[in-house]
Specification:
Elements lengths: L1 H13 L3 E5 L2 H4 L4 E8 L5 E5 L7 E2 L3 E2 L2 E6 L4 E6 L10 E6 L16 E2 L1 H4 L13 E4 L16 E4 L6 E6 L3 E8 L4 E5 L1 E2 L2 E3 L6 E9 L2 E9 L1
Antiparallel strand pairs: 1-2, 1-10, 2-3, 3-6, 4-5, 6-7, 7-8, 8-9, 11-12, 12-16, 13-14, 13-17, 15-16, 17-18
Protein name: Secretion system C-terminal sorting domain-containing protein
InterPro entries: Secre_tail (IPR026444)
Pfam families: Por_Secre_tail
């Protein structure tokens, strides 16, 4: 318990982006685990990892517990991974997975389903994560990224995520389009041709499009794949 309190205090002092998890209690004990953001993957999604204190946090099922939340771009799922023992996450155990495409952070308990991977747990977690058997708070999401202020209009921008061309359809007349970073920095003005914008030159990540239209300025959040 002293280690856990010190860990929480250290995380607060660092002012890090954190996730608090408690679940799979039969294996990991009835205790909180704190995750810190440790990176961002090629899709722009954040990676969260428990930061071990030497030795790592005790849990009876695995001895010591080191965990990671990360997106698997091959299976299109968020994964909850447990390290096999030395903190390098080489050949880790897959404990839970969730097919929600939330971005940039993993989904909470209400978005999609955190499904137990019984192939690795042998059913020891007691089933999927729910509000009745787990807590998952902090930098987690309850909704997926979507357009911000186009609801209710006969207008669409697709596909999103976009690889090459973003296509506009509907009854908005677009006068100009400005591209911004997700932090709000203007990057460029985009050229629209036949209802399409070419975004193939962009790096993978999150962007904002501000459209000057006949119905005022409209904002779209997009993911470049």
């Amino acid at each position: 318990m002293k280690k856990l309190l010190f860990f929480v205090l250290l995380s607060s002092m660092m002012n890090a982006q954190t996730i608090t998890f408690k679940g799979c209690i039969p294996l990991f004990d009835d205790q909180d685990f704190i995750f810190n953001k440790t990176g961002t993957d090629a899709t722009g999604r954040n990676i969260y990892t428990t930061t071990p204190i030497d030795p790592a946090q005790d849990c009876s099922g695995l001895g010591t517990c080191e965990f990671k939340f990360q997106w698997n771009n091959s299976t299109n799922k968020w994964e909850f991974l447990a390290d096999s023992g030395n903190g390098d996450f080489v050949n880790p155990y897959l404990i839970y997975s969730n097919n929600s495409a939330s971005t940039p952070n993993p989904p909470d308990l209400s978005l999609g389903t955190w499904q137990e991977n019984t192939a690795d747990t042998s059913g020891g977690c007691g089933g999927n994560l729910t509000a009745a058997n787990a807590t998952l708070t902090g930098e987690v999401q309850s909704s997926v990224l979507r357009t911000s202020d186009l609801e209710g209009l006969d207008f669409k921008a697709y596909p999103n995520p976009v690889k090459d061309e973003l296509i506009f359809s509907g009854n908005l007349k677009i006068n100009s389009i400005n591209l911004f970073s997700y932090s709000g920095q203007k990057l460029s003005e985009l050229k629209i041709t036949n209802g399409k914008v070419n975004l193939s030159h962009l790096k993978k990540g999150f962007y904002i499009l501000k459209l000057d239209t006949d119905k005022g300025e409209k904002t779209i959040k997009i993911i470049k794949d």
